[in-house]
Specification:
alpha+beta, two-stranded antiparallel sheet, 6 strands, globular
């Protein structure tokens, strides 16, 4: 049996499988976190620019663009909402797979559910299927894959296809072909986020769109390569190496990765979060004035240094990927970093620039040895008075070993969504999401009224 057929059998079983209350609860947490990111992200480029580009697909169809509430075709809604959900750098992470599953998978699942007028429970089941298939592929091919490829872009295709196939009601054969087709379309180079470009969030949008397309094609009889993962010229060999595909399928249905997600606590690249957490701990336990800081030494794993070492960010996008900027902002605030901490005017703030100049980032051997199973950081702050404060953050706030509580997740949603649609409407929508499984149709969410 091919690997994609194994995944397909599992995905199809998700339509009727008994899921524990824990699994369904975490699916709702993923959905709430996705809306927290997508609603504000939909107001920013490149999501707004894609909508302008694909204007002929707007105003028709059964799916909804967020937060405008405009109708759109299924694929276009998946593309634009999938892009929007990754723009503000606040979407969820599967730590072991170096992967943001929610952005592409939930965008695809929601667009397909709206088009087919699915029940909300069917939406949640599609989400679970997408996460379980994609997270296992991501973990199997990494960390080698992440040297060159953006996992959210590549593996996102598989997760979006699996979720869409479940919601479309495809059988095992057609679900396998959907995954086979998705695999040959999957792409997304890391260079896209090592430069100041809009391409990175489009990665998740294209994965969502490609997953929907693959499932729709399979529904109508289009076949794919069933050995696309393990074949000699397949995904595993081409984009990773020595992948243990047997291990990648053996735990399907036995344990659920969706219960081990990271929901971000800071609006920045996840590789910086442990640094922010360490600084916040030092700030909370010691009275440190930014005016009295002499130097700050940051230590983390190599990917933090490679991707986030930027002592002179020029744009808001670069600031979200700058360990030095985020550390300086954390030294000023001593609390979680939110979207409002990444504004054009901050890049020109003389005091923030001065603090950034005091910060150095290096690779720490202890952090590197723990990666990717743990995302850690070491921070040492020396004051002008000769005091030295140190802290080692062994994990990040929001990781499965230190998760956001339901209340904290709701607070994150309120902080991001409340200013957009109003406190009352945001509260009502949040209540609907926490009990979403009771809705007879996803259209009961009234997404068209959020704008």
């Amino acid at each position: 049996m091919s690997v994609v057929t194994s995944y397909a059998k599992f995905a199809v079983s998700c339509k009727t499988m008994h899921f524990s209350d824990e699994v369904m609860h975490h699916a709702k947490r993923a959905l709430i976190d996705w809306f927290s990111c997508t609603l504000p992200g939909g107001l920013e480029a490149p999501a707004t620019l894609i909508a302008k580009t694909l204007n002929e697909d707007i105003g028709r169809g059964s799916s909804t663009l967020l937060p405008s509430g405009q109708a759109a075709t299924t694929r276009t809604a998946a593309l634009i909402n999938g892009t929007a959900s990754h723009i503000i750098e606040f979407d969820d992470i599967f730590r072991d797979g170096l992967f943001h599953p929610g952005a592409p998978i939930i965008a695809a699942a929601l667009a397909t559910s709206e088009e087919r007028n699915s029940t909300a429970e069917e939406l949640l089941r599609g989400i679970v299927a997408g996460y379980e298939v994609a997270n296992r592929i991501a973990e199997a091919i990494n960390p080698n894959h992440y040297e060159w490829w953006h996992t959210t872009a590549t593996v996102g295709f598989f997760g979006a296809a699996a979720a869409s196939a479940v919601i479309l009601g495809l059988d095992v054969k057609r679900t396998a072909h959907a995954l086979g087709t998705a695999g040959t379309m999957a792409a997304g180079l890391q260079q896209a986020f090592r430069a100041d470009s809009m391409s990175k969030p489009i990665h998740s949008g294209r994965a969502a769109e490609g997953g929907v397309l693959s499932a729709l094609l399979a529904e109508n009889g289009v076949t794919g390569a069933l050995d696309i993962l393990e074949g000699e010229r397949g995904f595993g060999n081409a984009m990773s190496g020595n992948v243990n595909w047997k291990k990648a399928v053996e735990s399907l249905g036995k344990n659920f990765t969706i219960t081990r997600m990271t929901q971000k606590n800071h609006a920045a690249c996840g590789h910086i979060h442990a640094i922010i957490d360490a600084i916040n701990h030092i700030k909370m336990t010691n009275k440190i004035d930014c005016l009295n800081i002499k130097n700050v030494a940051l230590g983390s794993y190599q990917k933090t240094y490679e991707i986030c070492g930027n002592a002179n960010p020029k744009t808001v996008y670069e600031a979200k990927f700058s360990a030095e900027y985020c550390a300086a902002m954390a030294l000023r605030k001593g609390s979680a970093l939110r979207a409002g901490d990444f504004m054009e005017e901050n890049l020109k703030d003389p005091e923030l620039i001065r603090v950034m100049s005091l910060i150095s980032l290096k690779i720490d051997s202890r952090c590197e040895a723990a990666f990717p199973q743990a995302r850690s950081a070491k921070v040492e702050i020396e004051t002008t008075g000769g005091e030295v404060f140190k802290y080692f953050a062994s994990t990040r706030k929001g990781d499965p070993d230190n998760p956001l509580t339901d209340a904290e997740l709701s607070d994150k949603y309120t902080d991001l969504v409340g200013p957009l649609i109003g406190a009352t409407e945001a509260s009502l929508f949040l209540s609907a999401l926490w009990s979403v499984e009771t809705l007879p149709s996803v259209r009961g969410l009234n997404l068209g009224n959020l704008g």
